[in-house]
């Protein structure tokens, strides 16, 4: 692998994900930052951090508040540093992270704070569904009543029809997610579930049932990035960003040639793999975090990332190949499905998990042995945006 560092992660922080009454967006962001500072006592934020990159999808809806860049800077004590809010649906903080990497690689800044945050659970399910649907096509999807469970259900039906994928295989994605969510102290859901419980849960949009869908969550996550050559000033165990890629697909499913694959993922993976020198993702990657907002999303990600041949994603989960001790562990954090999905925070939370894995700090029996290289796959909407990062242990 090439693996030339683009930037270095020297610290991370994250709140617990879940229903967190009494906390606002600004408070959640500051709590995640507090953990990052505690992990990195050599860093003086007012002296060292030169810019803030914040991912937030729909603060205007959840809290009737926009302009999140300076608000977050204020609440972490970094006024007057430049602070920018990024919105790319559920990929908001993944894109914020990528832009921070590019800013550091450009040489314009040496140290950046990047993170994401969303506060969702104080709204009704109907309100949350409406705000989330803003990331789909308004005249041709929203207007006709399609929600994201409906959109991903269409993708699931297409995959089942074309490749014979079964409801049981989708259910196994949920079982795996809850298995590892139960081992993650920051996960929204911390109890395992059986396949029988998943399959008997109520239908949301067939074939997707309750346990095929990620929850509405609150939470925040962040990372501190530096130039690779100065990373050792702040920590003895940096994690290097060695690849990044971003792609897009048509926002409306009706424009796509194939509902069983995402052009955005394939393009982002092509860029990130080439940059990081990934030739065989099964052999070259040790741990992966994929965007499993619905169980079908994880199955499609297996295929689009090149972990298996097209149409064999269902078989891959059935054979246990993405379990902790399988060919390539995927979502041993619990994923969005069990860890939770405060949409603007998810991309940064994937970076948080990979940092723990690559520094050997993952808790309670979910540490991937000797993990050296990890990948984060973060989608926006029904896959119209995808951003991918490849990280390597320092």
Question: Keywords, please?
Answer:
Peroxisomal Thiolase, Chain A, domain 1, alpha/beta, 15 helices, 394 residues, two-stranded antiparallel ribbon
Topology of helices and strands:
Elements: E1 7-14, H1 25-39, H2 45-48, E2 51-55, H3 59-62, H4 68-75, E3 82-86, H5 92-106, E4 111-118, H6 125-133, H7 148-163, H8 167-181, H9 195-200, E5 203-205, E6 208-209, E7 219-226, E8 239-248, H10 263-276, H11 281-284, E9 287-289, H12 295-304, H13 313-318, H14 335-339, H15 346-358, E10 373-380, E11 385-393
Describe, in plain words, how this protein is organized in 3D:
- This protein is α/β, with parallel strands linked by helices and 394 residues long.
- It has a single domain (1-394), classed as Thiolase/Chalcone synthase (Peroxisomal Thiolase, Chain A, domain 1), CATH 3.40.47.10.
- The chain contains 15 helices and eleven strands.
- It has helices spanning 25-39, 45-48, 59-62, 68-75, 92-106, 125-133, 148-163, 167-181, 195-200, 263-276, 281-284, 295-304, 313-318, 335-339, 346-358, and strands spanning 7-14, 51-55, 82-86, 111-118, 203-205, 208-209, 219-226, 239-248, 287-289, 373-380, 385-393.
- Strands 3-2-4-7-1-8-11-10-9 form a nine-stranded mixed β-sheet, sandwiched between helices. Strands 5-6 form a two-stranded antiparallel sheet.
- β10 and β11 form a beta hairpin.
- The radius of gyration is 19 Å and the shape is globular.
- It starts with 6 loop residues before the first strand and ends with a strand.
